[in-house]
Structures are given as structure tokens and as C-alpha cells.
Specification:
The complex is a heterodimer of chains A (290) and B (217).
Chain A: H1 2-30, E1 32-39, E2 45-60, E3 64-71, E4 76-83, E5 86-93, E6 106-112, E7 116-129, E8 135-139, E9 143-147, E10 152-157, E11 162-165, E12 168-175, E13 180-183, E14 186-194, E15 199-202, E16 210-215, E17 219-224, E18 230-236, E19 241-243, E20 262-268, E21 274-280, E22 284-289
Parallel strand pairs in A: 2-5, 2-6, 2-7, 7-8, 7-9, 8-10, 9-11, 10-12, 11-13, 12-14, 13-15, 14-16, 15-17, 16-21, 17-22, 18-21, 19-22
Antiparallel strand pairs in A: 1-3, 3-6, 4-5, 18-20
Chain B: H1 6-11, H2 13-17, H3 23-31, H4 33-54, H5 61-73, H6 88-95, H7 100-155, H8 161-187, H9 192-216
Helix pairs in contact in B: 4-7, 7-9, 8-9
Classes of the chains: A mainly beta (290), B mainly alpha (217).
Chain lengths: 290, 217
């Protein structure tokens, strides 16, 4: 009896190790890697549509668009089309009733530096680096991470967060519950609005630049350096405004509308002023030293 | 004939005050306590203004003193015995020594100031009412349209549970945002910021529903 139980016990242990290995092997076998190349001219337009997965776009020096898609399930496929200088990339559904987990496809796309991007990704993530053309990105739950990009950038998410590091050009961001983070941006125009998310701005204040940050609740944090120069207007209708900047009050205090809630107006340093407007409904506004 | 709405009545308020009072406006006023309040407030202002012009009461001493000092500085009247030792009554007598145009200008200024000061709370109530009605008029139809779109859109949403959950959660956030902004506008109808945030919230809801609609297609 003792021997009888001993042998099966050893087999169970082996089985426990074997089953995950088999599952891993099976899933690896069904995952496909698809690679496609498209020759393009200067300033191509690249459109990417993905219901789920990670979209990573990087600039390179070649005059071509490279798409590498990792497609784990057999229910979807890579769909591509080229019309002149316009390349369309997307996840193609092969049947009607696909489980959400099978919708996933991860894309790695290389584009010329001056490419224009239009990306729509519902869930997962969008990462773009070193692309200098205009871009428009829309997501539902996917976060957006832009690094070293320029041009006219419009980002719209429902719940996804948005991070913009060393971005230049004009930036417009809109979300409902996503957080925004602007780090070392070199932009003359930033307009960011989120309902319940936080907004952190730790970028440069360029001469004549306009920075409009607005939320409903949450925190708006403006980080400034001693050499920065800006005219500031900060108001929270039902929340708080905390300020570490030594502001010079405006010479002419006339304003078209009365001050409401907690409000702060003034100039920080004088030369080459940027215009900064921070508005919140019942969130907290922090103006802090870097 | 259809009954007159408050907006129509308020649009005709000026002609009502001028004496033009058609029967439908009179009917509306009988049935509507809010508009009646506005008309009563206006009548109170008018009565007060008449009383002020007919029976000028002695104004506070400091007011006359400051007006007089200003007139002396501007050279309109000559310096007479020091203002500080004159009683209000004695200055009141000296008032009629002022040149006639200056007297007229200053009296009008005083009347306007007094009338403005008395009117302020009532005007504020009228303005509150107007802003409230204006905001309600512009948002109620918008809200109804968005609600009907919402019903159709939510029913046709795609099956990705992560996306659907995010959309539903954020729709609830925007709806909550709208109701809090509406509350804020009701509390302070003249608050431009509150109204801005309310319109923003509706705009966000419209944008979100458009996005949800795309998901359902």
C-alpha cells in the first residue's frame, strides 16, 4: 500500500510542473509575429486602430514604415493598407464573437521622424517617442506616454493617464478621469482639461506661451523655477489655492468678472511673461517651487 | 391660446413696466409667483425712487462733507468756514448757494447712488432669476437630448468589458459632475465659473457619448 501511494504522489508533482509548461508552449505556438514594410515619402500619415494592446511608435531615419505585430490569438489578424503616403494599420477581427482577451494585439511601429500619427487604442497603452509630426491620439482606458515629440499634439482619453516628457509644439489634452503629467515640456501652448484627474505641470514657461490647466476635482500642481516668468491666474470655486510664488499683484485690478471662490492673480518675475491659467471647481491648486 | 412662459413674460417686462399689460401677461402673473415677485420688487424700487426724489431727507453728514470738500478742490465753490466745524444742517443751508448746474449734477449723482444702493439686493435677485432661467433654458433641452442619446448608446456598447466598464464609470463621473455644477448654479446663478463648469460638463458628456457611440458601431 505504501509503495502504491508513493508512486502516484511523485507523478502528481511532475504533472503540476508539466501542465503550466504545456500551457505556455501552446500559447507561444498560437502567438504570431507579423512584420510588414511600407515605402513612404516625406511626412507620411500613419493611422493605427487597436481595440486592445500596446502600441509603440518610434522614429527612425529610414523612409519607410515598419510594423511588427504580436498577435496572441487566432481570432484577430494584422490589417494594413497603403494609399500613397498614407499607411493604415489595424487589428482585423476574423469572427464576430471574439472574447475580450482574444482582441489583444501589440504593435511596434517605426516611422520617419516627420510622420503624422493618428492613433486610436481602447485599452492597453500608447507610447510614442521622437516623432516630430502632428499627432492625434484617442483612447478609452489606455494610458498615453509621449517622449521627445513635437508638432500639434491632441490627446483625448476617457480614463487613461497622459504623460508628456520633453514635448514641444502645441499640446491639447482632454480626459475625464485620467491624470496628466507634463515634464520638461518645451511648448508654447498647453491646454489640458480633465474632470477628476490630477494635473502636474513641471515644464518650461516660454515667452508668450499660454498654459491653461483645468480640472473639476483632484489636484493641479504647477512647479516653477526661480528663473521662470509668468502671469498667473489661479482659481478654485470650492477648493483651495496654495501658493509658494512671490507674486506681484496686477497694476490694474479691473477684471471683467468678479473673483469667485479662492483666487489668486499676479506676475512672477517680469521679462518675457508666459500666461498661466489654473482653474478648478473643487480641486486643490498648488503652485510650488521646483 | 397657449399659456405664456416665464421667459416670454420676462422678455416683455420692460413694456409691462411702461404700462402695456396684455391679458396673457396678466394671467401669467396671477399664476406665477416667481414673476410676481420680480414685478413686486420692481414696484418697490420705483416707489422708493419716487419717494427719494419727492422728499429729500437730510443726508448723512460725512456724505455732504466729502462732496463739499471735493467741490472746493475743484473750484466749483469757494472755501467757507472749515467743514469740520459746520453742522450738517448749516451746510444744508449753504448748499443752495451752489451754482445751479453743479447743484443739479451733484443731486443727480446722490440720487443715483442712493437708488443704486437700495436697488442692489433686489437687482441681484432679479439677475439671479434671469441667470437661473437662462441657464436652465439652455441646458434643459441639451440634457434631455443627451439622455435620449445615452439610452441608445449604452444599449449598443461593444463587448470588451474593460472598455465598457471604463465608459460606464466615467459616464457616472460626468453625470455626478453635472448635478454638482447644477447645484452650484442654483446656489449662485450669477457665478460665471459655476456656469462655465456646467457647460463644460455637458460638453464632456456629449464627447463621451460620441465616443461610446463609436464603440457600439
Amino acid at each position: 500500500m505504501h509503495t502504491w501511494f508513493a508512486v502516484p504522489e511523485t507523478n502528481w508533482k511532475s504533472a503540476f510542473l508539466l501542465v503550466p509548461a504545456l500551457i505556455f508552449t501552446a500559447s507561444s505556438a498560437s502567438a504570431r509575429r507579423i512584420e510588414k514594410h511600407f515605402k513612404v515619402d516625406a511626412r507620411p500619415i500613419v493611422t493605427i486602430h487597436s481595440p486592445s494592446g500596446t502600441v509603440t511608435v518610434k522614429a527612425w531615419t529610414k523612409s519607410e514604415v515598419l510594423v511588427i505585430a504580436e498577435v496572441p490569438s487566432g481570432e484577430v489578424d494584422l490589417g494594413t493598407a497603403q494609399d500613397g503616403n498614407h499607411v493604415d494599420i489595424g487589428t482585423r477581427l476574423l469572427s464576430n464573437n471574439i472574447s475580450p482577451s482574444d482582441l489583444r494585439a501589440d504593435y511596434q511601429v517605426n516611422v520617419p521622424e516627420n510622420a503624422e500619427l493618428q492613433i486610436h487604442n481602447d485599452a492597453g497603452g500608447v507610447n510614442v517617442a521622437n516623432v516630430l509630426g502632428d499627432m492625434s491620439i484617442e483612447t478609452v482606458a489606455a494610458g498615453v506616454d509621449l517622449q521627445d515629440v513635437a508638432g500639434y499634439l491632441t490627446v483625448k482619453t476617457v480614463a487613461g493617464s497622459f504623460s508628456c516628457t520633453r514635448c514641444a509644439g502645441r499640446i491639447e489634452a482632454n480626459s475625464i478621469s485620467g491624470n496628466f503629467n507634463f515634464v520638461d515640456t518645451h511648448s508654447t501652448h498647453i491646454q489640458a482639461q480633465t474632470s477628476t484627474g490630477n494635473i502636474i505641470f513641471a515644464g518650461e514657461f516660454l515667452p508668450d506661451g499660454q498654459y491653461r490647466l483645468r480640472n473639476y476635482s483632484g489636484v493641479i500642481e504647477l512647479r516653477f523655477a526661480p528663473g521662470d516668468s509668468f502671469d498667473l491666474s489661479a482659481s478654485s470655486l470650492k477648493g483651495k489655492v496654495n501658493n509658494e510664488a512671490r507674486l506681484i499683484p496686477p497694476k490694474h485690478s479691473f477684471r471683467s468678472s468678479p473673483r469667485e471662490g479662492e483666487a489668486l492673480f499676479g506676475s512672477y518675475n517680469a521679462a518675457g511673461r508666459a500666461s498661466v491659467s489654473l482653474t478648478s471647481f473643487d480641486g486643490t491648486i498648488n503652485i510650488v517651487k521646483r | 391660446m397657449a399659456r405664456m412662459a416665464c421667459k416670454q413674460f420676462l422678455d416683455q417686462l420692460d413694456s409691462w413696466i411702461d404700462g402695456h399689460r396684455p391679458s396673457d401677461a396678466r394671467e401669467h402673473l396671477t399664476a406665477c409667483p416667481s414673476c410676481r415677485l420680480i414685478v413686486e420688487d420692481h414696484a418697490a424700487i420705483t416707489t422708493m425712487a419716487h419717494r427719494l426724489s419727492e422728499e429729500p431727507a437730510d443726508p448723512p453728514a460725512h456724505l455732504w462733507d466729502s462732496i463739499r470738500v471735493q467741490l472746493v478742490l475743484e473750484g466749483v465753490i469757494r472755501q467757507t468756514p472749515p467743514v469740520s466745524i459746520r453742522s450738517p444742517r448749516s451746510f444744508w443751508r449753504g448748499w443752495f448757494a451752489l451754482p445751479t448746474p453743479a447743484l443739479a449734477v451733484v443731486s443727480i449723482a446722490v440720487l443715483l447712488a442712493a437708488s443704486f444702493a437700495l436697488r442692489a439686493p433686489v437687482t441681484r435677485r432679479m439677475n439671479d432669476y434671469r441667470w437661473m432661467r437662462g441657464t436652465q433654458n439652455s441646458t434643459s433641452s441639451l440634457g434631455a437630448q443627451l439622455d435620449s442619446v445615452e439610452h441608445a448608446t449604452v444599449a449598443s456598447l461593444a463587448a470588451n468589458p474593460v472598455v465598457t466598464a471604463a465608459l460606464h464609470k466615467n459616464l457616472a463621473i460626468v453625470d455626478n459632475y453635472i448635478s454638482l455644477c447644477e447645484k452650484s448654479v442654483r446656489e449662485n446663478p450669477q457665478s460665471e465659473m459655476a456656469r462655465d463648469f456646467l457647460y463644460d460638463a455637458y460638453q464632456q458628456k456629449a464627447g463621451l457619448l460620441a465616443q461610446m457611440n463609436e464603440q457600439g458601431e
